[in-house]
User: Which sequence fits this backbone?
């Protein structure tokens, strides 16, 4: 069994002081794959645990959202398709958490050069008004050498459409099973300080934007300025020649 070291180090840069105690982040895990091969299963759990640990070390509140905790059924019925107050308790509880969060970390494996279908499916259950006017950070990983960068490209469009704009710095972890132990700590064989600084760059951007967005949401309610489209997607269309 390879040795691992605890995450972070007291001498490493900390996240800056942007109201961090008053901000809340959700870390969405993008895997439900609990079988092998390929080995190991649920590699993403290590990555998500590393994200939680890094954020907690930066004194930031972060809660892990695991798609295995949600029974979404085989028929797709999003939260916004239920009458007010009628959504299943699990969906409602997550909707409330998404609405209350200041930003999101989206952790995805790369499956066939795309983002995790489990993550997309979970996120598709919620309207963009719950996510919008807040930032997100993209974290991808793979067992191979590219660290999920091809999945990350699609995630930028996906998250932008949800309204939680991704910050520019991303985290990609190639051969994640050789970087992170099961508890999310870095193996002794890797340079934990460099990895910690790599995570910190994305999470510092995330907290900076989250703080800026929180201030501005408190000053002006964006949902009053730009009402959410609730009827159908054509509400987004540009006016046609015949529409008055
Ligand atoms: C259906 C499927 C498709 C995959 N496609 C890719 C891929 O496109 N690129 C890649 O680097 N790894 C790919 N892999 C390997 C994954 O990086 C590896 O299995 C990883 O552990 C998946 O994360 P998970 O264990 O958290 O589900 C794929 C794995 C599966 C199961």
Assistant:
């Amino acid at each position: 069994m390879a040795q691992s070291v605890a995450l972070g180090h007291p001498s490493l840069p900390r996240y800056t002081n942007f109201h961090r105690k008053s901000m809340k982040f959700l870390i969405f895990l993008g895997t439900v794959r609990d079988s092998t091969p390929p080995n190991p299963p649920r590699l993403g759990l290590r990555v998500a645990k590393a994200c939680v640990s890094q954020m907690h070390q930066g004194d930031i509140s972060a809660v892990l959202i695991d798609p295995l905790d949600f029974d979404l059924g085989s028929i797709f019925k999003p939260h916004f398709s239920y009458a007010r107050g009628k959504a299943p308790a699990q969906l409602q509880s997550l909707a409330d958490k998404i609405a209350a969060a200041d930003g999101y970390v989206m952790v995805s494996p790369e499956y066939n050069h795309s983002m995790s279908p489990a993550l997309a499916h979970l996120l598709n259950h919620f309207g963009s008004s719950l996510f919008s006017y807040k930032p997100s950070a993209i974290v991808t990983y793979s067992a191979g050498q590219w660290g999920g960068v091809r999945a990350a490209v699609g995630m930028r469009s996906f998250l932008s459409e949800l309204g939680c704009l991704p910050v520019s710095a991303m985290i990609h972890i190639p051969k994640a099973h050789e970087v992170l132990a099961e508890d999310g700590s870095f193996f002794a064989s890797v340079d934990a300080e460099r990895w910690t600084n790599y995570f910190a760059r994305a999470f510092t951007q995330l907290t900076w934007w989250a703080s800026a967005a929180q201030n501005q949401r408190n000053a002006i309610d964006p949902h009053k300025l730009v009402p959410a489209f609730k009827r159908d997607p054509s509400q987004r269309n540009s006016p046609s020649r015949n529409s008055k």
In short: The chain has one domain: 21-236. Residues 31, 33, 38, 41-44, 109-113, 142-144, 146 surround flavin mononucleotide (CB under 6 Å).
